[in-house]
Fold these 2 entries.
Entry 1:
Amino acid sequence: MSEILHGLITRSQSGFYQVETEKGTFTCQLRGLLKRGRRLGDLVAVGDRVSITPLRQGTGIIVRVEERQRLLARQAPLPQGSYQQIIIANPELVVLVFACAQPEPRYGMLDRFLVIAEKQAIPALIIANKADLVGEQAAHELYDHYLPLGYGLLVTSVKTGLGLAELRQRLSGKISVFAGPSGVGKSSLLNALLPGLDLAAQSVSRSTRKGRHTTVVRELYPLAEGGYVADTPGLKALALWDIQPEELDAYFPELKRHVAACQFSDCTHVHEPGCAVLKALEAGEIHPLRYRSYRRIRLGEEE
Ligand code: GDP
Ligand code: ZN
């Protein structure tokens, strides 16, 4: 009986997977048996917990993939049917980086990201970066309406260091995935968290990947405090996939709680009489910016 080790896939490259175990790091391939049968999706991805059989010189074979707790994935339509492409397995936190200014807050995009986090049941932490440009209080005014919805919020400045210690604390021990529009300071934040890793230097290779649909995570970067962070290579990495218009209200926590009281069970909450969501909006119980995002997504409008 050969030895079995358990580990985490922290890197993937052309069919080779780097697996971190208690006995060190192994470069592994998938056992042939796992590859049999009809493929409806990626078999393994960064973030998967696996069992391996070590071979010589730091190599090994992945013999088993543990059941995934969570998943960030997209359905890729292929001629032979839909294929599930895994962006990252087992993410425990999605960190949505936005700015207070330069660029202005993009609530529409943030709300789209939050819908995905809700759909995949991944806790979200919103970062309001560049607080130094507007002041801490104004930063809170721009983003505090997300707090009662149950999302985490941290006001930060990479420039002054505000909030960075707390960010480290919140990431510690978890697998986190970062997303956000460009220019908000995502690379600056990651560089501050991962000294020695110059993400800006990789921006050239990142831009060459822009046109591609595949925006899967290739690598988890270990944090000094324990845990890992992953950067989604492009903005499109977290577009709105696979969300049916009828299920959208379930991914807005503050809308969801009113839906049962709507007069029509198929209420779209856009124009119907007896709509409890519209009533709550009028009563000031739903933030107008959040409702605006709901409406735009529901009606299929661009962000
Ligand atoms: P990314 O596109 O989101 O990765 O953003 P970058 O990390 O490349 O940052 C974009 C620009 O914003 C750079 O010029 C950074 O120096 C600047 N920047 C990043 N964080 C802050 C901050 O907290 N405050 C200010 N004033 N500028 C920042
Ligand atoms: Zn309604």
Entry 2:
Amino acid sequence: MEIVRYPHPALRWKSQPLTEINSTLRTTVRQMFDLMYESRGIGLAANQVAIPFRFFVVNVTSDPELKDEEHVFINPEITRRKGNEEGEEGCLSLPEVYGQVRRAEEIVVDAFDLDGRQFEMTLSGLPARVIQHETDHLDGVLFLDRMSDVARRELSDQITDFEAMFQRQQESGEYPSDERLKQNLRELQANGL
Ligand code: ZN
């Protein structure tokens, strides 16, 4: 398992709901937390590791010792949004890229946990921002898409570098073509986790 970087097609994937919670999912979730901590992240969506299903992991402290702060959101839905505020965001699929993004200030999110229990959380501040960022991932939306044109233009050199790098990796055979990568995602989706 590895975190894929922009513009890997998995990041533009509209992921499917999970229909089953099984041991493969539990193992995958553990691996995702470990990868997230290695990269000092606070959230990681399944399609960032090229898994086309709707779930993500979050620990806003980024501290692997704080297990109580670990949350898994399966088939999440943001059911209410209130207010809005701008704040800085980054993304493990675009390392070193940071920009201002406007998000709802307060949200209510509905999801299932790893035991299959449905829960609801009312969140504000950083946790609300993270959940909005990660839920966007599941719809193939990146934080870049939520920036103002001016803010995004300031990052255009960095974005172009990521695109050039991915193209080189495809040319060298390190990654297959976009078509092949999309086919892999379709197959994973058809077979389930
Ligand atoms: Zn991200």
